[in-house]
Design goal:
The protein has 369 residues and is of the alpha/beta class. Helices cover 43% and strands 14% of the residues. The protein has a 5-stranded mixed beta sheet, with helices on both faces. The chain has a 3-stranded antiparallel beta sheet with strand order 9-12-11, with helices on one face. A two-stranded parallel sheet has the order 1-10. Strand 5, helix 7 and strand 6 form a beta-alpha-beta unit. Helix 2 crosses helix 9, helix 4 crosses helix 5 and helix 6 runs parallel beside helix 7.
């Protein structure tokens, strides 16, 4: 956010800034979503919905899970939330007691640990590495159990690395969590944005896993703040009571837009194709420029670049990049307070033309250093 603030300040001053710092699509919500909202605005009152969300949307999400993954989940297990952020708050409050620790792979999305901290819980960081594609393993789950942690949060595809728990990894993690009687919370917010192998849902391997998802990324609806949970049926009432007190209900207009978004899949797939082209371009051009230590991202729209041969202070490096060539990127310390000083995250969700220009600027800048 500090990088974004400075980038916006420079942009207002007339500088040509390319935004690669914030993980959001450059495209609006799909046309079908916007049309559904326009119709509702003209005809409906748009009052509160049920705390768990519009029944029609809960049913449509359940259908989506069947269509995409082949898993059958009843709509009574689906909870509509005010974005995935509210989903994490509700989940942690429902399953943890004050002071409990929860396992988080590192590097990882920084808000996980900050939400835990704000709610009176503890983050138990699990150091992952590029050799394991930045993913935890079953041995990490066993270590969590020995430490007394209550569970594991897994993001696949991951922010910031874009890597996934492929093959047997997700199955092994789900089985290990169940064996150790730990909660498995699966962040699937970047599902739909995969480039070679389709992402799997934790629901395929566990009936007690909690899934967190959102319309923000694949559905290109970040500002609408609407997401969903899939929880064990026995937990639904607990989540409902929490949601009633904390949020009353998710935003009605956003839920209506979400219903429409499911009719925009063809448009969304075209957007994903643009991401794939930008990903391929950046991997090739940045490697030529000397940033060759990047695992080809399986999904999402990020590259997590090792810049240790250039700096041991990624925050200063990002600041210099913004100052010198107008490229806003996120320092790795956001995602890994220790090793992140040697990494930089680049988001390629912007326009293809901007990504080509970004590659040109970065290449010229690195060659001149």
């Amino acid at each position: 956010m500090d990088v974004l603030s400075e980038a916006n300040r420079r942009e207002k001053a007339g500088e040509d800034i390319i935004h690669m710092e914030v993980g959001q699509p450059a495209t609006p919500a799909p046309r079908a979503a916007r049309e559904r909202v326009a119709e509702a605005m003209a005809k409906e009152r748009l009052g509160y919905t049920e705390a768990l969300g519009l029944p029609a949307l809960r049913e449509r999400i359940a259908r989506h899970l069947k269509e995409r993954y082949g898993v059958s989940v009843g709509p009574e297990r689906v909870v509509v939330t005010a974005g995935s952020s509210a989903g994490f708050v509700l989940t942690f409050l429902a399953i943890l007691d004050h002071g409990d620790a929860f396992g988080l792979p590192s590097p990882g999305y920084p808000c996980y640990r900050q939400i835990l901290k704000a709610l009176g819980f503890q983050a138990h960081l699990i150091e992952t590495g590029d050799q394991g594609r930045w993913m935890p393993c079953a041995a990490d789950v066993r270590a969590l159990a020995r430490s007394g942690a209550a569970g594991l949060l897994l993001a696949s595809p991951s922010n910031p690395t874009g890597t996934m728990a492929n093959g047997l990894r997700l199955k092994e993690l789900a089985e290990a969590c169940e064996y150790e009687k730990l909660w498995l919370v699966s962040d699937e917010i970047y599902h739909g944005l995969e480039y070679d192998i389709a992402a799997e849902t934790a629901l395929a391997y566990s009936d007690v896993a909690i899934v967190v998802n959102s319309f923000s990324k694949y559905f290109s609806m970040t500002g609408w703040r609407v997401g969903w949970l899939v929880v064990p049926e026995a937990m639904t009432r607990t989540i409902e009571r929490l949601a009633q007190n904390l949020y009353i209900a998710p935003p009605t207009v956003s839920q209506i837009a979400a219903l429409g978004a499911f009719d925009g899949i063809e448009e969304l797939e075209e957007i994903k194709d643009r991401y794939a082209r930008s990903r391929a371009l950046l991997l090739e051009e940045l490697s030529r420029a000397g940033l060759s230590k990047i695992l080809p991202a399986d999904g999402a729209f990020y590259l997590y670049a090792d810049v240790s041969h250039l700096t041991d202070d990624s925050a200063a490096f990002a600041k210099a990049m913004l100052h010198d060539i107008g490229i806003a990127a996120t320092p790795g310390v956001d995602f890994d307070p220790d090793r992140g000083r040697s990494y930089l995250r680049l988001c390629y969700a912007g326009a293809e033309s901007e990504m080509r220009e970004a590659a040109r600027r970065i290449t010229a800048w690195l060659k001149a250093r």
